[in-house]
Amino acid sequence: MFAYTAYNLRIHSEFPFPELSKSEVSQKPDVVISLRSLSQLETQTADGANKLVAFLELENSTAGRFLVESGRKIVVEPDPGIDEDLLRPFILGPAFAVLLRQRSHLVLHASSIAIDNGAVAFLGHSGWGKSTLANAFYNQGYGLLTDDVMAIKVESNPPIAFPSFPQVKLLPDAAASLGYDFERLTSIHAGVAKRNNRLDQGFSQIALPVKRIYVLENVAATHNEIQPLSPQNALIELVRHSRATDLLTTPEFVSSHLRQCANLVKNVSICRLKRKSSLAGLPKLVKLIEEDIAQTIFDEHENIQLFASA
Question: Are 162 and 105 contacting, i.e. CB atoms less than 8 angstroms apart?
């Protein structure tokens, strides 16, 4: 049995996850990951919510089944001959997104960094530059918090984000622009263009309050610009970029998800980030976001002082 930590959870797995931070096997696990056949009872009692059984989709085809139960158990039943290297990204992506939602977290398709004891997130679909931007901030001395799967406890005051694991996925051109030798990064699988960039030294290992969310655009702009989003548009973007909404579709989970998104809009500033397409312009983009966050923090302090003196 292998032991790890991620999202402030103790994880025991029957097979290794080199992506995760190691833990002590002696500790009682919060989550157990197994690789075995699903029983007839497990499939018959699945309810599509806190006991979800679904097809294992790899490379645009089904390759088995998986079970996620009560936010505590993941069982993967792959078809014969499936490489474990293909299973790990699926488990750490879609399966964990379901598990985290079963644990009552809002799960976003976002990468995030630690700035001034808070979490700053970059929201968007795969290939939109979330990981690249997070790694650019990491290169400037900021801590990495999450990559691709961001779990938020919305009911906290303020909402808090949990640390995932210390790596980001980069394409060859993004790796080169950030100063990495792509060939030295860890291969995910032979058929995957991206590679894993391990960032152990600057990984933020504590949950942090969510301070700001930037919604990335998938269209190159003529200049870098940050635009505040109205509450209505911010809600649309959160719903649009949530994880596991296509798997957990029961009325209970749908209503809970919408309520969580609405609560996050009320408590966290959400903006749209328009960017030039050039990777060479990353330092200027990082500087723009740093200035925006600094101004936001200054405004918050001013508001607190005005409230105290009133």
Answer: yes
Q: Distance (Å, rounded) from C-alpha 300 to C-alpha 297?
A: 5
pLDDT digits (tens, 9 = 90+) for 240-267: 999 999 999 999 999 999 999 999 999 9
Residue 75 bridge partners (DSSP): 34, 67
The pLDDT value recorded for residue 268 is 96
Question: Which residues are within 8 A (CB) of 41 and not within 5 positions of it... i.e. 6 or more apart?
Answer: none
Whether residue 137 contacts residue 125, with contact meaning beta carbons closer than 8 Å, is answered with no
* Chain position carrying tokens 């993967």: 76
Kindly list the strands in the beta sheet with 61-69, ordered across the sheet, starting from the edge strand earlier in the chain: 21-22, 2-6, 9-13, 31-35, 73-78, 61-69, 51-58
The answer to whether 90 and 60 have CB atoms below 8 angstroms apart is no
CA 29 to chain centre: 21
In terms of Cβ atoms closer than 10 Å to its own Cβ (0-12, 13-18, 19+), residue 162 is buried
Would the pTM count as exceeding 0.90? Answer: yes
Cβ atoms of 182 and 170 closer than 8 Å:
yes
Cross-strand bridge partners of residue 198: 167
- Positive or negative: CA dihedral 84, 85, 86, 87: positive
The first and second tokens of residue 298, run together, are: 């200054």
Torsion, Cα 243 79 13 135, to 10 degrees, reads -40
Residue reference for tokens 């500033």: 269
- Return the amino acid letter for 164: S
SS3 85: helix
Q: What is the DSSP letter of 20?
A: S
Burial of 193 (0-12, 13-18, 19+ CB in 10 A): exposed
